[in-house]
Amino acid sequence: MTDKPFTRHGIVRGLETVASSPLFEGRFGRMFRTLPPAKHSAASLKSLASRMVAEFEPNPTPETANPPDDEENSGISAGYTYLGQFIDHDLTFDPASSLQQQNDPNALVDFRTPRFDLDNLYGRGPDDQPYLYDADGLHILLGKPLSGNPHDPNTRDLQRNAPQAGPKRAIIGDPRNDENTIVAQLQANFTRFHNRVVDVLHTQADFATIQRIVRWHYQWVVLHDFLPTIIGKETLNSILPSPDKPNLQFYTFKNDPFIPVEFSVAAYRFGHSMVRPIYRLNTTLQDRLVIFSLDPNVPNLTGFREIPTDRAIDWSLFFDFGNHPDQFSKERIQPAYKIDSSLVNPLGHLPPSIASVVPSLAERNLLRGLRMGLPSGQSVAKKMGAQVIPDEKLRVGKATEADTTNNLHLTEISPEFRGNAPLWYYILAEAQQQFKKNDTPIHLGPVGGRIVGETFVGLLLGDKHSFLNQEPTWKPIEDFTKKGTFGMAELLTQAMKA
Fold this sequence. Notes:
498 residues, mainly alpha, two-stranded parallel ribbon, two-stranded antiparallel ribbon, 8 strands, disordered N terminus
């Protein structure tokens, strides 16, 4: 295999050179350094990938545009899929590359330690990248107004360039946050939240102080909203029973924190199974938009272009703001799809702007795990002391009442998978074991949840500038909270005031 199929998106410089040595420590490393890599043929992985991609489902007409769906996850709202993508782009920020392109496949590993520091928002700061900022050096610039959200008439697109021909690209700290409409508008609203903090503090703080306050609110959301939603409160409490007594059993480092490949190549790719094929962005648009389409005439969320004026996102359709309309209402919160061993059909046919050679995201993930020498899911479970899922309970397909009993067993796809499941697949299938009926909420299981949770907590604890290190009793600005709670809904509420 060559590097070419995997260089357009999703690879971070330095990732391809991760050593297996137990002494290795750098920007990337291994959580389970002594476990042997799982052995699979590319043909078997390709067969598994084809089974993991669901069949095409047509876009419903506007009259039936927002009904409940058996594939929806009652425990996770759709916004967390893209918050997870935003967080990923923050952790893997690389100031020396553009979209991780193929001109530097090996790279060095001596970049700064990955942190929850919003470098995807701030870039290199107002002194080095003044074109991202207003003349006052405090506010961050935004683009044209967007309409369609009745709750937020001030919605804005990202600041963009204006070429004579071709798409208008976003001028932001990390260009990956322009790759789809939803993550682009998340970026815009984190920008607005920063500007809101500037307005609240007025002249009482300099840029560094404002940046620290914004970062700490973001870290609070990661720790107290995103993590418990994705891995469950019980798992999080077992990892961080209190800020001064963490319980990191598997994620350890000597000097600087690193990103484990078991996290970046397997566990944190759980979000791919949460992607819906279509989304309602606001209640004024007649169409629901598909995530990708090779047909330019089909309304879609593909990014790296100016956002159409009427596509302001109504975030109450993506996060819980406390309003709970009828489940058949066009104003209902859209849940994410279940964390299971099935990806929606568009992810099997990515557009050339994202994947020109291997268009199946499932195949890309599985082949990347092979290239990176990831251990099997069963071997990781044994190492962690978790109960190993027997082969007869490992199936491939949707976690729905209509599909679950007919889903193929993993070993029916290839005998290579007997007791030897690819780690990314195993983590999805592990979460799928929670399924009982269509409305069963599903989060990551013991292996996937522990890898994600320990990595996040370890990165926060390893960052000397995080609120957990500098001020573990810190709380968000009181006026920003709702009944003492601060999460993404509250952050977006404040952003909409900017």
